[in-house]
Design goal:
The protein is α/β, with parallel strands linked by helices and 398 residues long. It has two domains: 117 residues, Aspartate Aminotransferase, domain 1; 255 residues, 3-Layer(aba) Sandwich (Aspartate Aminotransferase, domain 2). A seven-stranded mixed β-sheet has the order 4-12-11-10-7-5-6, with helices on both faces. A four-stranded mixed β-sheet has the order 1-2-3-15.
């Protein structure tokens, strides 16, 4: 039997069985559902996109996978070259992996070893944000700050290697002043904290973070697994504030295959480039640089660029703001909108019990969590489909 994620198996309701998917729709045997969460924010082009399908088929006719240990291949080389050309600044060195969590682990490992290679062995601490979520592997849980996901870590006690700060500049400055000699990096989900509650904060915080990292010699990591590829309304938040290490996943392959990349700048890469074998980055996921994943990622990026996806996202945000204008309810604490994300936060999580089935009956797949009812729709959604999603969210409170 399947052991499902984030569920108490004894009490979970039966999951919806999907028999087909196309465009923004998931199909059960009796209903078409608009996927309002893009399969955990990854399916930006919709399902069964002909160009993405064709990219998979072309590569399958050659080979599906070869390891990158001692071997290489054109799809991985082309994806690295495309990202080097497309990403801002000197984010040029791509380390591939098979999931966002692993890619964040790689980033944290890079930051720690970067200073260790230079003999700065006291820099063992990571600064992260309150309400952070960076994945479910152990180090990503440690830098995360949400007990609803990571309560298992109470068995280890509070980590001496991580400090969490709120998204206020005074708190950030105070933490840097106190811990800077021990810090190797600051890691953030820029502008939008996803699984921690769709929390949104101001760009000025990131600008100040960049200044403080430069001043104290600390690496800045952007976890854009969720925010990259336009979700905040920007191509990447890294276009606005340049990190030293950038992590991408989810939409990298258009949601077709699990794949991720940790991209380092020249300074970080040079910290490993040495005659000393002990200075190498000793990491190697089996499916890093998977040929199918790299091929579909290349086609996904081409679609994003050729079809002006930022305009699509601006349109989604404009429609969302129009439809949510004036919406309020005593149960609602706040409505937040940023780019391709809308979140209704309620005061009591119990108020959202039953919403998933309510939405199902109205032709929408939704997956609220805790006190957050949200939508992160595929970018190819049409106006009437988006309005249907938003009307369903509002109708729950009437």
């Amino acid at each position: 039997m399947i052991w499902y994620p984030y569920q108490q198996m004894k009490t979970m309701p039966p999951p919806y069985s999907i028999v087909d998917a196309e465009g923004v729709y998931l199909y059960t045997r009796d209903r078409a559902l608009i996927d309002s969460v893009s399969s955990w924010w990854s399916v930006i082009h919709g399902y069964k996109h002909p160009r993405l399908n064709a990219a998979i088929h072309r590569q399958t006719d050659q080979f599906a996978h070869v390891m990158l240990g001692g071997l290489t291949h054109a799809p991985a080389q082309q994806l690295a070259a495309t990202l080097e050309e497309w990403l801002p600044g000197d984010l040029d060195h791509c380390f591939f992996s098979d999931s966002g969590s692993v890619a964040v682990e790689v980033a944290l490992k890079m930051a720690l070893q970067y200073y260790g290679n230079q003999g700065e062995t006291q820099r063992t601490m990571v600064m992260a944000l309150q309400h952070a979520y960076h994945g479910d592997t152990f180090k990503t849980m440690e830098v995360g700050n949400d007990e609803d996901y990571h309560f298992i870590l109470t068995a280890y006690g509070k980590s001496p290697h991580v400090v969490h700060v709120p998204t206020t500049i005074p708190a950030l400055e105070e933490a840097f002043a106190k811990y800077h000699r021990q810090l190797n990096c600051l890691i953030v989900e820029p502008l939008l904290q996803g699984a921690g509650g769709m929390r949104m904060y101001d760009l000025s915080f990131l600008k100040r973070a960049r200044e403080l990292c430069d001043h104290y010699g600390v690496l800045l990591i952007f976890d854009e697994v969720a925010t990259g590829f336009g979700r905040t309304g920007h191509r990447f938040v890294a276009d606005l504030v340049l990190p030293d290490i950038l992590v991408l996943g989810k939409a990298l392959t258009g949601g077709y295959l699990g794949h991720a990349v940790t991209v380092a700048n020249h300074k970080v890469y040079q910290g490993f480039y040495d005659d000393d074998p002990s200075h190498a980055l000793m990491h190697g996921p089996t499916f890093m640089g998977n040929a199918l994943a790299c091929s579909v990622a290349l086609e996904s990026i081409a679609l994003f660029r050729e079809e002006d996806y930022l305009s699509k996202i601006q349109r989604i945000e404009a429609i969302t703001r129009r439809e949510m204008a004036g919406f309020s309810h005593p149960s609602v604490k706040e409505v937040r909108i940023l780019g391709g994300c809308v979140c209704i936060e309620v005061h009591d999580p119990a108020l959202l019990q039953g919403y998933q089935q309510f939405a199902y009956q109205r032709g929408v797949f939704s997956r609220p969590f805790l006190q957050y009812l949200y939508a992160m729709v595929p970018y190819v959604i049409q106006e009437d489909q988006l309005v249907q999603v938003l009307d369903t969210m509002k109708a729950w409170f009437r």
